Amino acid sequence: MAVHVVDHPLVRHKLGLLRQANLSTKDFRALSNEVARLLTYEATKDLLTEKVTINGWAGPVEVDNIMGKTLTVVPILRAGIGMLDGVLDMIPGAKVSVVGLFRNEETLEPVQYYVKLANKIEERMALILDPMLATGGTLLATVDLLKEAGCKNIRGIFLVAAPEGLRKLEERHPDVEVYTASVDTCLNDDGYILPGLGDAGDKIFGTK
Ligand SMILES: O=P(O)(O)OC[C@H]1O[C@H](OP(=O)(O)OP(=O)(O)O)[C@H](O)[C@@H]1O
Ligand SMILES: O=c1cc[nH]c(=O)[nH]1
Ligand SMILES: [Mg+2]
User: Which parts pass through the membrane (predicted)?
Assistant: First the structure.
């Protein structure tokens, strides 16, 4: 399985700011989108393009166009919404497929409450957005439902990932590629990533 840790100074700097305990909602939101933007740049490096000829200022010129029904971004509610603007800054025409899942606080199992996928999803690359990959339960449930819908090419962008979740993904879906700013140390007894960011959903939405 491919895990791409994006080791760019801007990403490392912004991730360091995100880890601060007393960050305001506004700053956490802004930084999440900024890191998402940079991770998107890396995650889309090999998108297929085709040559087209356009009218340039000095006559016809051959340029590159991203091909056809290329991708859909898949924010996982709620916290994935905190990365969506940043990703759409980079890919403004992307179709958005929304998946609603929350983690049961006791069992840590994902609970699904909403799904609305883009049309022709089987022809698109799916780019999953979630700030946190912890136990991996939420990501596995999302990949399962995308594959059931016919999706063959799936990637995920996470601000922070835990080794436990990556191991689970490797066992169940080794074809899924991960792009993250950091693989952190481990999970605590409540399933939170250490050193991590805390509860990303609460920080992005200002709840708590
Ligand atoms: O890898 P896992 O152990 O499944 O945990 C990761 C999930 O937990 C968080 O969502 P949460 O359940 O807090 O929902 P929220 O986005 O609505 O806050 C996070 O945004 C991931 O979706
Ligand atoms: O560390 C974690 C783990 C799951 N969800 C979060 O928001 N943070
Ligand atoms: Mg949450």
Answer: none
